[in-house]
Amino acid sequence: MKLAIVTGASKGLGASIAKRMIKEGTGIISVSRTENPELTELAAEHEVFYGHYFCNLASSDEIESAFKEITALLQEKKTEALYVFNNASVISPIGTAGSLDHKALIQNVHVNLIAPFIISNILLSEALSDMTIVNITSGAAERPIQGWSAYCSTKAGVNMFTETAALEQQTAGTRHKIIAYSPGVMDTDMQGTIRSSAKEDFHDLKKFQAFKEKGMLRDTDTVADALIDLLLEKEIENGKVYHVNDLI
Ligand SMILES: NC(=O)c1ccc[n+]([C@@H]2O[C@H](COP(=O)([O-])OP(=O)(O)OC[C@H]3O[C@@H](n4cnc5c(N)ncnc54)[C@H](OP(=O)(O)O)[C@@H]3O)[C@@H](O)[C@H]2O)c1
């Protein structure tokens, strides 16, 4: 059986990735704090497996307990190919270093960086033969954006984790592939949070408000399709950070 684990499938890009994978006949293991009823219906329509695991990715205990159940399920389903989309993320706290709330800062590092790390670590320790891990990153990993020091730093960490872990798998001679995917600006709730930040906290506020006003935010289905086409139709390069603009 082919399965895909998608974190943050409740909305935005994660929902679009899950929908496309269901249409490709792949079962979905969804991980987030809220459930997306549309996915249950779509999976039933396409007669593929769908399971949701309620999990706050800001908590290591919750991740470990959800993935204990998920790894048992993977064994039970005799999974022959597994895709893992580490997609869930938060942009907050937005503000200059010196003004950041520590609780929000810790949550950002946990959801954006520690969660993909722990999830990959757990799954790589399992005896699965063929796994593709896709870590969703951002252009913010590659350039500083004032007010986003937490987000830029965690996404840069995601890229380095991707490159390092891929190299390790190559050296070990496994069939596992680990890549990162930078999806560009999309019309999601995350962009809504960005547009509603205070101008003193976010230097580029007007630029991001203009993205929406000028219709420059891509829809998530288009961005998910570019990624899934890449995974299903091309030979992917282990450790590479792929950018949506090179694929569309
Ligand atoms: N939108 C953009 O313009 C843009 C640009 C570049 C990169 N990206 C990246 O693309 C990916 C998807 O972003 P998006 O715009 O689709 O985001 P979004 O619409 O804000 O959705 C975020 C997802 O993450 C989940 N999530 C957040 N905090 C969580 C937590 N503590 N525990 C579990 N799940 C949590 C949410 O699920 P629940 O709330 O149900 O838990 C939700 O499904 C992210 O990695 C983001 O960094 C986005």
Description:
There is one protein chain. The protein has 248 residues and is an alpha/beta fold. Helix content is 48%, strand content 15%. Strand 1, helix 1 and strand 2 (27-32) form a beta-alpha-beta unit. It is globular.
Topology (elements, then pairings):
Layout lengths: L1 E6 L4 H12 L3 E6 L4 H9 L4 E5 L5 H17 L4 E6 L15 H23 L6 E6 L12 H24 L4 E6 L6 H7 L9 H9 L6 H14 L7 E3 H4 L1
Parallel strand pairs: 1-2, 1-4, 2-3, 4-5, 5-6, 6-7
Helix pairs in contact: 1-8, 3-4, 4-5
Bound molecules: NADP nicotinamide-adenine-dinucleotide phosphate (NAP).
- Which radius of gyration do the C-alpha atoms yield? 18 Å
**Number of DSSP strand runs:** 7
CATH topology: Rossmann fold
| CATH classification class | Alpha Beta
State the CATH architecture: 3-Layer(aba) Sandwich
Task: State the distance separating the first and last CA atoms.
Answer: 30 Å
Low-confidence regions: none
Q: Shape from CA axes?
A: globular
Helix content: 40-55%
The proportion of strand residues reads 15-25%
Count up the domains: 1
Please tally the helical runs, counting DSSP H or I stretches of 4 or more residues: 9
Bound chemical compounds: NADP nicotinamide-adenine-dinucleotide phosphate
